[in-house]
Amino acid sequence: MEQGTKTAHEGESVANNSDQTSDPIWQTRVNGFVSSLPVFFKDGVMYEAECEPQSNCDNDQQSFKAYLSRWMAGTTLLAPWTYDTIMGYLMPSATAAAAQCDGGTTGQVCGLHWYENSTYDGLYGPGEQMAAMQVFQSLLIGGLQAPFTTETGGTSKGDPTAGTGTGTSVNTAAGLRTVTSGDKAGAGILTAVVMITVLSGAAWMLI
Fold first, then answer.
1. What average pLDDT does the structure give for the chain?
2. Nearest Cα to 28, choosing from 81, 64, 72?
3. Which end of the chain has fewer CB within 10 Å, C or N?
4. Cα–Cα dist 161/124, whole Å
5. 32-68 in b/e burial notation, b at 16+ Cβ within 10 A?
6. What is the reported pTM?
């Protein structure tokens, strides 16, 4: 953890290269999200509170822990001061998940009930495997750099006036002509014809 913390803090990050880290409002809101994490953990291990205790998670819910793990890890790049806190949740969860990954005919299938600190729970599917794989991979985040910005080597340029008509004209760039009153009238007539057709068909079916 110590090495990962060093990398996350010393690497070039969005948060370190913007005014956001000096914005107390931004930091307070990020910290507010981080402080809500215990809702998703039981005995320090990630779980799906709405369905996991009752063992009635649907296909979607079985994969939710994968997304939570991914974005918790991503947060440590954008807000490096959260690294130690977030890893304090991810590391025990990964350890508990590994205890569930000894099932199936291969002895490598992962279950879902990590917080029970037990062996394979008999559950099998893409969601369970996604969740376990992602919580393991999230522990590698400390060795990665944050996304590039214009200050750290990024080259993508945006046009904040795009679509407003005050910047580069989209119509001109695309070789399109200006919409005329006749175009608008024709579009209105076509819309009316379509609506009449749909309503007539609906009335015929009801009759």
1. 80
2. 81
3. C
4. 49
5. eebeebeebbbeebbbbeebbeeeebeeeebbbbbeb
6. 0.60
Q: What's the helix, strand, coil split of the chain in %, to 5?
A: 55, 5, 40
Spatial distance between the Cα atoms of 175 and 197, rounded to a whole number of angstroms = 34
Q: How far apart, in whole angstroms, are the C-alpha atoms of residue 113 and residue 77?
A: 28
Query: pLDDT per residue over 36-69, tens digit each?
Result: 999 999 989 999 988 888 889 898 998 999 999 9
| Distance from the Cα of residue 38 to its chain's centroid | 19
Segments in 11-152 forming alpha helices (H): 24-35, 64-78, 83-99, 126-137
CB-facing half-sphere around the CA of 152: CA atoms within 13 A: 13
Cβ burial, residue 166 (10 Å; 0-12/13-18/19+): exposed
Contact assessment for residue 101 and residue 33, using Cβ atoms and an 8 Å cutoff? no
Q: Which residues contact 206 (CB under 8 A, 6 or more apart)?
A: none
The kind and range of the H/E element at 189 are helix 181-206
What residues have CB less than 8 Å from 108, skipping those under 6 apart? 101, 102
Contact 117/96 with Cβ under 8 angstroms? yes
- Do 93 and 45 form a contact (C-beta atoms < 8 A)? yes
How buried is residue 80: exposed, middle or buried, by Cβ count under 10 Å (0-12/13-18/19+)?
buried
Residue 159 buriedness (CB in 10 A; 0-12 / 13-18 / 19+): exposed
